[in-house]
Amino acid sequence: MPFIIAIDGPAASGKGTIARALAAELGFHHLDTGLLYRATGAKGGDPVAAARGLTAADLARDDLRSAAAGQAASRIAAIPEVRAALVAFQHCFAAQDPGAVLDGRDIGTVIYPGAEVKLYVTASDAVRAARRAAELGADPDQMLAELRERDLRDSQRDVAPLRPAEDAVVLDTSTLSIEEAVARALAEVRRVRAG
Ligand code: CDP
Ligand code: CDP
Predict the structure, then answer these.
(1) What distance in angstroms lies between residue 194's CA and the mean position of ligand 2's atoms?
(2) Which of 30, 131, 146 has the most ligand 1 atoms within 8 A of CB, as the residue to mutate?
(3) Is 141 contained in some domain?
(4) How many independent structural domains does the chain possess?
(5) Which atom of ligand 1 lies closest to the CA of 173?
(6) What is the domain extent for residue 91?
(7) Is position 34 within any domain?
(8) Is Magnesium tagged as a keyword (predicted)?
(9) What ipTM is given for this predicted complex?
């Protein structure tokens, strides 16, 4: 059975960076599940049909990282049929040996409630906005408003809302460098593997 690492958290908390680093260190596969929602939203038209017909080319679009694509993703992500259409892809991906790291919003709560390792990565609103603003070359105040709007929508939706799984280890990266955050995540993986 592949070893599953579930990493959830709000926007720009650093979960993708940690997920990529863990996968590289452990030789695991990595899936950024946010990309599935971003690609679905970016296709336009009927979001349920878009999710069902998602292709590799849709996932390779170079406009998926924008704030607008994030907002579109968050709107279609509240539709139960959209989420259902993306479950099989995530399960197939994660079935690869020796293991997989998936990052998103509902990996530890819905997609893999039995994941061996569950991390909930977070950081203060101001730190997250500053990080994302630096990445996109955007205004931090505008970014703060955008992230808050998206986090609120993601936390308040009925289906698979953003929240830590009861058994998730919470990792606040507000004052951590990337190296420190990755080291803590890796320590948790090693603790579980040793046990
Ligand atoms: O995947 P998620 O949206 O949660 O965040 P990310 O794309 O991994 O990280 C957002 C930005 O914060 C990236 O530019 C990272 O380099 C930076 N960052 C970080 O991830 N962790 C830190 N401890 C410090 C900065
Ligand atoms: O990198 P960042 O955290 O800003 O966003 P993302 O992980 O690419 O996710 C974009 C949007 O997709 C989120 O705001 C959620 O609405 C949605 N999403 C979700 O509902 N479930 C997931 N497992 C991943 C993303």
Answers:
(1) 31
(2) 131
(3) yes
(4) 1
(5) 23
(6) 3-190
(7) yes
(8) no
(9) 0.97
In the chain, the N- to C-terminal Cα span, in Å, equals 17
**Atom 21 of ligand 2: nearest residue by CA position:** 105
Q: What is the pLDDT of residues 2-16, one digit of tens each?
A: 999 999 999 999 999
The reply to whether 106 falls in a domain is: yes
Query: What atom in ligand 2 is closest to the CA of residue 8?
Result: 23
177 Cβ inside 6 Å of ligand 1: yes
The verdict on residue 195 lying in a domain is no
H helical segments located in the chain: 15-26, 34-43, 47-52, 56-59, 67-76, 80-94, 125-136, 140-156, 178-194
42-71 pLDDT, tens digit per residue, is 999 999 999 999 999 999 999 999 999 999
Whether residue 73 has its Cβ less than 6 Å from ligand 2: yes
Distance, CA of 147 to CA of 10 (rounded, Å): 8
Phi, psi of 23 (to 5 degrees): -60, -45
Answering whether pTM is above 0.90, one says yes
The angle that helices 178-194 and 15-26 make with each other, rounded to 10 degrees, is 50
Q: Is 8 in the pocket of ligand 2 (CB under 6 A)?
A: no
Residue 33 CB–ligand 1 contact under 6 Å: no
What SS3 class is residue 184?
helix
Question: Which CATH number fits the domain that encloses residue 19?
Answer: 3.40.50.300
